[in-house]
Amino acid sequence: MIRIFSQLLSKNDQRYIRWKKSLKNRPPPWNKGKNKNNDLGVKKISDTLKTKKIDNFKIWRENAKKLEIIPNSKKLLNQDEDLAFLTGLILGDGHLAKASRTEVLRITLGTDKPNLWKYAAKIVNRVFNKKPNIRKRKHSEAMDITIYQNNLAKRLFIPLGPKRKYKLKLPTWIWNNKIFLISALKGLFEAEGSFSIHLKTCTYNFAFRNFNTSLLLEVKKALILFGYHPEERKTAIRLRKRDEALSFKQLIKFRTFK
């Protein structure tokens, strides 16, 4: 039998409403406003629980997970267009790293592209069902979109640490679906792509730039799969033909966000 905690119920549930009203007649808890840094009694309790390896919030956390108040970090992510776009964006301008007892995903985008970083934050929220932290860097024109959660690397199929150390690949599930592949390419090009036209010579250039050779080859392979003829450079993959550059720009809806 699962014990139901009133505070975990929906705010529209009558049991929650009755519980909330009953709190008005209760005296405040003895430890209100106290923590292990300002109260010896609380510190002693904290040290005892730590020594005996007692998890004081285990029951609460298990119930919160069942009610999906706490996201299940072991659950596989929905493999859809949102995740495919986010995968491309992370491979381009994201970073996964270990943090204290968890993992951190940070995507860094320029403040000159507000539509992109706002859209990226919305996608992160949809994919992980968790609102990311958004912060402007103090000494640079960049926005950090950050989220902490366990098993991020495993569920995203992206390794932890500096990306230059790895042979980066798009996950198989993306290659198996052309719609997902288009979304992943959009994420990659929104992060590290540029579209330009030199009017005097009527020269078109749609380029993806990156220092990871494996990732460049993934982009080249994907472009060829869709019938394009990319040029390969040391740190870039480019579409130089007018019709191909415009066609691909339309295919991935470059700089268009909904």
Commentary on this structure:
The chain folds into two domains: 10-56, no CATH class; 81-251, Endonuclease I-creI, CATH 3.10.28.10. The protein is 41% helix and 18% strand. The chain is built from ten helices and eight strands. The chain has helices at residues 14-22, 40-51, 58-66, 81-93, 114-128, 152-156, 172-175, 178-192, 213-225, 242-251, and strands spanning 94-99, 102-110, 133-136, 142-149, 193-198, 203-209, 231-232, 236-239. The strands form two sheets. The protein has a four-stranded antiparallel sheet. Strands 5-6-8-7 form a four-stranded antiparallel sheet. The longest helix has 15 residues, at 114-128.
Question: Any key phrases for this structure?
Answer:
2 domains, four-stranded antiparallel β-sheet, 8 strands, elongated, endonuclease activity, INTEIN
